[in-house]
Amino acid sequence: MTQAKQGLLSRLLNGSTDNIFVQLFRYTFVGGAAFVADFGSLWVLTDFAGLHYQLSAAIAFVIGLTLNYVLSTRWVFDSAADAYKTRSVKVLQFVLYAVIGVVGLALNAAIMWVFTGLLAVHYLASKLISTVIVFVWNFLARRVLMKKTAEQELSKMDARTQ
Q: pTM for the full model?
Protein backbone atom coordinates (compact mmCIF):
# COMPACT_ATOMS: atom_id res chain seq x y z
CA MET A 1 0.00 0.00 0.00
CA THR A 2 1.38 3.40 -0.92
CA GLN A 3 2.05 6.03 1.70
CA ALA A 4 -0.74 8.23 0.28
CA LYS A 5 -3.27 5.39 0.65
CA GLN A 6 -2.05 4.70 4.18
CA GLY A 7 -2.46 8.39 5.02
CA LEU A 8 -6.00 8.44 3.64
CA LEU A 9 -6.91 5.25 5.47
CA SER A 10 -5.42 6.60 8.69
CA ARG A 11 -7.42 9.84 8.34
CA LEU A 12 -10.61 7.87 7.74
CA LEU A 13 -10.14 5.59 10.73
CA ASN A 14 -8.08 7.46 13.34
CA GLY A 15 -8.34 10.66 15.34
CA SER A 16 -10.92 13.39 15.77
CA THR A 17 -12.41 15.07 12.73
CA ASP A 18 -14.98 17.68 11.77
CA ASN A 19 -14.90 16.60 8.13
CA ILE A 20 -18.47 15.60 7.23
CA PHE A 21 -17.29 13.01 4.67
CA VAL A 22 -14.99 11.28 7.17
CA GLN A 23 -17.78 11.39 9.77
CA LEU A 24 -20.27 9.97 7.26
CA PHE A 25 -17.78 7.22 6.35
CA ARG A 26 -17.35 6.32 10.03
CA TYR A 27 -21.05 6.67 10.79
CA THR A 28 -21.79 4.21 8.00
CA PHE A 29 -19.75 1.56 9.82
CA VAL A 30 -21.26 2.49 13.18
CA GLY A 31 -24.71 2.46 11.61
CA GLY A 32 -23.92 -0.91 10.05
CA ALA A 33 -22.99 -2.37 13.43
CA ALA A 34 -26.09 -0.84 15.03
CA PHE A 35 -28.20 -2.15 12.12
CA VAL A 36 -26.88 -5.69 12.63
CA ALA A 37 -27.72 -5.46 16.35
CA ASP A 38 -31.15 -3.94 15.57
CA PHE A 39 -32.05 -6.25 12.67
CA GLY A 40 -30.77 -9.37 14.44
CA SER A 41 -32.67 -8.49 17.60
CA LEU A 42 -35.83 -7.83 15.57
CA TRP A 43 -35.56 -11.24 13.94
CA VAL A 44 -34.80 -13.13 17.16
CA LEU A 45 -37.50 -11.34 19.18
CA THR A 46 -40.15 -11.79 16.45
CA ASP A 47 -39.39 -15.27 15.12
CA PHE A 48 -38.01 -16.97 18.22
CA ALA A 49 -39.44 -15.07 21.20
CA GLY A 50 -42.84 -14.69 19.52
CA LEU A 51 -43.21 -10.95 20.10
CA HIS A 52 -45.31 -8.80 17.77
CA TYR A 53 -43.11 -7.25 15.09
CA GLN A 54 -43.82 -3.69 16.31
CA LEU A 55 -42.79 -4.49 19.91
CA SER A 56 -39.76 -6.36 18.62
CA ALA A 57 -38.88 -3.39 16.41
CA ALA A 58 -39.04 -0.98 19.38
CA ILE A 59 -36.83 -3.15 21.60
CA ALA A 60 -34.40 -3.82 18.76
CA PHE A 61 -34.25 -0.12 17.96
CA VAL A 62 -33.21 0.70 21.54
CA ILE A 63 -30.46 -1.93 21.37
CA GLY A 64 -29.19 -0.42 18.11
CA LEU A 65 -29.50 3.13 19.51
CA THR A 66 -27.35 2.34 22.55
CA LEU A 67 -24.63 0.71 20.47
CA ASN A 68 -24.77 3.63 18.02
CA TYR A 69 -24.37 6.23 20.81
CA VAL A 70 -21.39 4.50 22.39
CA LEU A 71 -19.54 4.04 19.10
CA SER A 72 -20.47 7.48 17.73
CA THR A 73 -19.30 9.42 20.76
CA ARG A 74 -16.01 7.56 20.81
CA TRP A 75 -15.21 7.45 17.09
CA VAL A 76 -17.48 9.47 14.78
CA PHE A 77 -18.33 12.73 16.53
CA ASP A 78 -15.53 12.84 19.10
CA SER A 79 -13.78 16.14 19.71
CA ALA A 80 -11.11 17.65 21.92
CA ALA A 81 -13.88 19.15 24.05
CA ASP A 82 -15.20 15.69 24.99
CA ALA A 83 -12.46 15.23 27.56
CA TYR A 84 -13.65 18.36 29.39
CA LYS A 85 -17.37 17.67 29.41
CA THR A 86 -18.89 17.39 32.84
CA ARG A 87 -21.01 14.41 33.73
CA SER A 88 -24.18 16.52 33.53
CA VAL A 89 -23.26 17.68 30.01
CA LYS A 90 -22.65 14.07 28.96
CA VAL A 91 -26.00 13.00 30.44
CA LEU A 92 -27.79 15.86 28.67
CA GLN A 93 -26.03 14.96 25.44
CA PHE A 94 -27.14 11.32 25.76
CA VAL A 95 -30.72 12.40 26.47
CA LEU A 96 -30.76 14.62 23.38
CA TYR A 97 -29.12 11.85 21.36
CA ALA A 98 -31.86 9.51 22.59
CA VAL A 99 -34.57 12.06 21.67
CA ILE A 100 -33.22 12.04 18.13
CA GLY A 101 -33.38 8.25 18.36
CA VAL A 102 -36.99 8.39 19.57
CA VAL A 103 -37.90 10.52 16.55
CA GLY A 104 -36.11 7.90 14.47
CA LEU A 105 -38.06 5.18 16.29
CA ALA A 106 -41.33 6.94 15.42
CA LEU A 107 -40.22 7.17 11.79
CA ASN A 108 -39.22 3.51 11.90
CA ALA A 109 -42.59 2.44 13.34
CA ALA A 110 -44.56 4.55 10.88
CA ILE A 111 -42.60 3.32 7.88
CA MET A 112 -42.89 -0.31 8.99
CA TRP A 113 -46.63 0.13 9.62
CA VAL A 114 -47.18 1.62 6.16
CA PHE A 115 -45.18 -1.03 4.34
CA THR A 116 -46.06 -4.08 6.46
CA GLY A 117 -49.44 -3.15 7.93
CA LEU A 118 -50.96 -1.43 4.90
CA LEU A 119 -49.03 -2.70 1.89
CA ALA A 120 -48.37 -6.25 3.19
CA VAL A 121 -44.63 -6.04 2.53
CA HIS A 122 -42.65 -8.56 4.61
CA TYR A 123 -41.53 -6.97 7.88
CA LEU A 124 -37.82 -7.50 7.15
CA ALA A 125 -38.13 -5.75 3.77
CA SER A 126 -39.98 -2.91 5.51
CA LYS A 127 -37.10 -2.68 7.97
CA LEU A 128 -34.59 -2.27 5.13
CA ILE A 129 -36.57 0.66 3.70
CA SER A 130 -36.96 2.19 7.14
CA THR A 131 -33.27 1.82 7.89
CA VAL A 132 -32.17 3.97 4.95
CA ILE A 133 -34.55 6.81 5.83
CA VAL A 134 -33.82 6.72 9.56
CA PHE A 135 -30.05 6.52 8.88
CA VAL A 136 -30.08 9.84 7.04
CA TRP A 137 -32.21 11.51 9.75
CA ASN A 138 -30.02 10.19 12.58
CA PHE A 139 -26.70 11.15 10.99
CA LEU A 140 -27.67 14.72 10.16
CA ALA A 141 -29.46 15.43 13.46
CA ARG A 142 -26.74 13.84 15.58
CA ARG A 143 -23.97 15.61 13.73
CA VAL A 144 -25.62 18.96 14.50
CA LEU A 145 -26.13 17.97 18.16
CA MET A 146 -22.58 16.77 18.72
CA LYS A 147 -21.06 19.75 16.93
CA LYS A 148 -23.11 22.22 18.97
CA THR A 149 -22.28 20.61 22.31
CA ALA A 150 -18.58 20.46 21.39
CA GLU A 151 -18.62 24.15 20.38
CA GLN A 152 -20.34 25.09 23.65
CA GLU A 153 -17.74 23.19 25.70
CA LEU A 154 -14.85 24.79 23.80
CA SER A 155 -16.44 28.21 24.33
CA LYS A 156 -16.70 27.55 28.08
CA MET A 157 -13.06 26.38 28.15
CA ASP A 158 -11.95 29.56 26.36
CA ALA A 159 -13.92 31.73 28.81
CA ARG A 160 -12.26 29.99 31.78
CA THR A 161 -8.75 30.52 30.44
CA GLN A 162 -9.21 34.23 29.84
A: 0.70
